[in-house]
Structure formats: structure tokens, C-alpha cells
Amino acid sequence: MKTLMVLILGLTLLTASGCGVKKSYVDQSIADSEGRTNAKVATLQSDVKANQDQIAKMQALSAELSKKTDMALNKAAGFENFQPIWDGVINFDFNAFAISSNAELVLMEACEKLEQNPGAILEIGGHTDKTGSANYNVMLGQMRADAARRFLVERCGVSLYRMFDISYGKDKPIAMSDEMNAASKNRRVTLKIWGPM
To answer: Were both Cys, which of 30, 45, 126, 147 would link to 141 (CB 3.0–4.6 Å)?
Structure first.
């Protein structure tokens, strides 16, 4: 009987010490889990703060752009009453943007018209033939428009704010491929002076 009591007491002690080990393991697991959760929460809070800062920057940029848009619209007010008062065309050699002597004559005529109409503005459109990629032709059309604009500034003193340019590349041909000299006709800059009615 004494042996049985010792055995039961031993089993009780063993069970109690096993529970202590399990409790310690469970406590450690919970602590580890809480640590990971706290780290994730800290990361999320940092991300939220960064997003809030980004949103604030975007709102400030939006307000600034809105103000600039309003200014541009105010400056453009009245242009809806403009009409074309003169137009001209200058042509270019293949893959070139140099101003020829014939082009100079047309540009000097544009200078005179702009001088006679101080409130007028000039639209400059750069064009190319169909040879080459679309991207290259847009770039070449822009170089042609820039060359015309630069001539008008340097030779005639036309203010930059009176000129607006765009490159159409090969998208707006005036001559179709089957026409005679189609490519040379399409390598051009169009000039259109707009003045108040």
C-alpha cells in the first residue's frame, strides 16, 4: 500500500511538472505571436502615415494645378473670337529641317502680317512624309516647327507667347502616295495667323 501511495504521489508530481512545461510553452508561443502582431501593426501604421503624407502632397499638387488651369483659361478667354487672317506653307528637303531661301520669303511674309496685327497669334504645324517610324516623324515634324519659330524670333523679334506649335508627324498628309511629288508636298510646316474678329 505504501508503494502504491508513493507511485500515485510520483505520478501527481510528474503530471504537475508536465503542466508547468506546457504552460511555459504556451506562454512563450503567445508572447511570440503578440510580438509578430505588434511588429505587423507598427509596419501598417508606418504605411498609413506614408500614404497620408502622399495624399496630402497629391492634394496640394491638385490645388496648384487647378489654380494654373484657371489662370490659363483666363488668359485664353477671348481667343474663341479669333479667325484665320493669313496662312502659308514652307517645304523641306528629305529628312531635313533647315529653312530654305524660299521658306524665308514665306516666313518674312508671316512677320509682316504679325506686325500689322499686334493682337494676332500664329499656329505652326510640323509635318513629314510617310517614310520612317511614327515616333521619328513626330520628332522631325517638331524640329521643323521649331526651326520656323526660331527664325521668326531671331529675324523678326516675334514674341514666343504669340506662337503655338505642334507636330503632326506623318498623320496629316496633303498629298496621297499615288500623286506626283507627294512626299515633297507633305514635308512641310503650315503657318496660320489668327486674329480677333
So the answer is: 126
Q: For 26-53, how does the pLDDT look when each residue is reduced to its tens digit (9 = 90+)?
A: 677 777 777 887 888 788 788 778 777 7
> Where in the chain are the domains?
1-77, 81-196
127's torsion region: left (phi>0), alpha (psi -120 to 50) or beta? beta
- For residue 121, what is its C-alpha cell? 497669334
Q: What is the pLDDT of residues 79-136, one digit of tens each?
A: 678 899 999 999 999 999 999 999 999 999 999 999 999 999 999 999 999 999 999 9
Taking the complete model, does pTM exceed 0.85, yes or no? no
